[in-house]
Batch of 2 targets.
Target 1
Amino acid sequence: MKMPSGSKIERRSSVEREPKTLTTQELQCAREGAIQILRTNTLEEAVRIFTEVQSPGTSSAFSSPAGASPVASNREAFTSSKRSSERETSARSLQA
C-alpha cells in the first residue's frame, strides 16, 4: 500500500497514546499520602498497606463511598490525615 506523497507516519509509544490515569495534582496527593503512611506506621505495616490487594466490595481506610471518585476520597482522607498529623506535631512542639 502506497502512502500519499507528503504524508508522514507519526510514531509514538503506546504510553503516549493512552490517556493519563491521574493528574499531576492527584499524583502529588498520592505521594503525600504514601509519605504520611510511612511516617505514621512501622515499616512492616507500611509494606502491608502498600501491597494489600483490594478485591471489589472490600473497604479500606481510604475507600470511597458508592458513586464517589476513589481519587477524590483518597485525597480527602490523605488531607485529613495530614492535618491531624500537623496538629499533633504542633501540639508536641508547644509542650516542649
Target 2
Amino acid sequence: MPETYVRRHGVDWPVGMHPAFIDLTVAKKHKLLQKQYGVEFPDPHVRLLDAARALLPEGAFVVSPWSEQHAYDFVHYRKNVTWGCASCSKSNDYGLFTVLHWIVDPYTTVCLVGSTSLKALQSRTWESIVRYHAHLKVHNAGKLTIPGKFSRTGYAVINESDQDVAESQGSKASIQGRALNDGGTLQGAHLPYVLLLVDEAATIADQSIVQNAMVNLRSGAIDFRVFMLANPEDWADPSCQYCEPEGGVSSVDVDTGEWVSTQGFHVRHHDGLKSPRVLHPEREDWSHLLGPEDVAESLLEARGNMDAPIIWKMVRGFPRPALSSAETVLEYAEASARKCMEPYAPTGRDFVAAVAAGCDPAWSPDGDEAVWQKVEVVVGAGVPYLVFKEPERLEIMSSSKDTPLEQMSRRIVDLFLADRALDPSDVAYDSSGNQSLCGAVAMRTGVHGMDVNSSERASGQPIGEGRPAAREKYRDRAAEAWAVLAEFVRAGQVRGLSRAAVEQLCSRRWATVSARTSALMRPLKLESKEAWAARERRAGGPKSPNQCDAAAVAALAVKERLGFMPWSNAVPAPRPSGILPGYPDPDVPVAPEADVAYGDEWVPEEYFS
C-alpha cells in the first residue's frame, strides 16, 4: 500500500505536499502545530528563509544578517517595530514575508499594508509585494500553484474566483495596500489570520488609524500580527509611543539592538554604522545594504557633523538624543522619565488646592483648532502637582451667523457655569493674534482673565523656585510660558499632560541666529510656528502646536495667578471661587474658608503656608 504521508520536521504531511509549502506552514503555524502535535519546531524562522530560497529564482532574495533578524522577528513576534537606517532591507524583506505568509492560507488570511501615500506604497513595501509575487508565479509554474492575482487598481492581491470554492469569491481574503495619509483606513475582514504591516510609521499623520486597527482587527482572529517599520527623528515622534522601553527612554541608546516596549512590542534597531556591508565591504552580494561609501557621502552632506538630524535618522536609524544639533524646549527622554503623561496616583491624603485653565483660540472653522485646557493643582503628600484634564476642542461652526470670537466666548461662559470651582480670572488666553478672546470673555462675564501675548517682553518673575527672572533668559511671553510648563515637568510636578502636548513641547525648537548655524538666539525665543509646522507637516503632523500652547498658558496661570511655583512645595492659602456677575450662585455655595476635597479626604490646615 503506497504511503499517504511523509514525515518532515517531526510531523506527518500528505504525500505530494511541496517541501517549501511545508516549511511555510511551519513558519506561519509553529505555535498552533506545537499545541496540536506536542512537537517543538527549532528555528521556525529558518524554515521561512529556506522556503524563500527554494521558491525564488537565484539572486532574487539575498539573505544578510539583517534579513535573518527580520525573518526571526516576523515568525516569533506578534507585535514588532523595526527601526533602521536607509537601505537596511526592512521594506523589501517584510514585503516578501507578507506574500509568503498569505499564500499558505489565501482563503482565510488578510494582510493590510499601510503607508503614507500611493506613491510611497509604489516605491517601498508594495513594490516588494508586486515583485516577489511575480517571481513566485513565474518561477514556480508547473511546480507549485501560487494563488492570487492583482486587482484592477493594482493595490490588492486577491484570489482568483473558483466556482467550487466559496471562499475564493470576493476580496476579503487578500493583501491590500492602503494610503493612510490620503484618507485610507486599515479596516478589514475578521478572518482567522490577520496581518497588519505599517511602513513609514513615523510619518503616518493620524496614529489613531493604527491604534483603532489593532483593537478592531484582533477581534476574532486566531493569529493576529502587527509589524511597523520606521525611521523616527526623535522620541517625541508619535510612532515612538509603541517603542518606549520598559526601563524608560534613558535605558536604551543608539548601540541597543533590541528591547521590549511598554506596549508589549519587540523593537528591533539597525544602526547603519553596524551595517553588514560596512562591517564586511568585500561582500558584493550585500550591495543593496548601506555601505561605507553611503555613510561617507551622508557625512559629507552633513558637513562632517555626526550629530546632524539627517545622520541620526538615515544613518544611525535612531531618535536624535539630547544635546544634539537642534535644541528643543524639553527632551523627550526627560519628559518620559518625569512621568508627565501618566495619570495622577492618589496618595490617600490628596486635595484640590486650586483650578486654572488655558485657552489657545482659533479664528476660522477650517484653520487651527481652538483648545481649552483645564488643570487642577492637586496636593499629595505635601507636594503640589499640576493634574491636566483631557483637552477640549472649542468647535467653530461655519454654519453659525456668529463670528468665531462670539462662538468661543459663549462656549467658555458655558464652561464656567458648568464648573464653579474655576475662577474666570484664573484662565490664561493666548492672545498673540489680532483679536482678544480674553477681552471678549470679560465683556460677557465682567471678570478679566490673563492675556499672554508673545510679542510682549518676558516678565521679571522667576521661572521657578530659586531661578532668575524670566527676561534674563527668555525673550518674550510665549517662550516664558513654554519654559514654565517645561520647568514644572522637570520638577516632576506634572501628571495627565496629553501626548500631543508633550510631543509638541519636545519637538518645538529654540530659534537659532540663522538657518546656517545651530547657535541659539539669546535671550531664547521659540522658533516660529511656521518653521515648526513645516517640519512637522513633513512628518504628517499638525499645523500648529495648539495643545501645548493651551497647556503652557495654563501652567503660566497656575504660577502667576494661583501662586504655585515649579520646584516649590509651598501651597498658597485657598481663595473663594469667582462668581460670574449677573449669574445665579451655585445651589450649594462654598464658604471662603472651606477646603476643596480631592476624593474623600479632608484638607489639614498645616498644608497651607
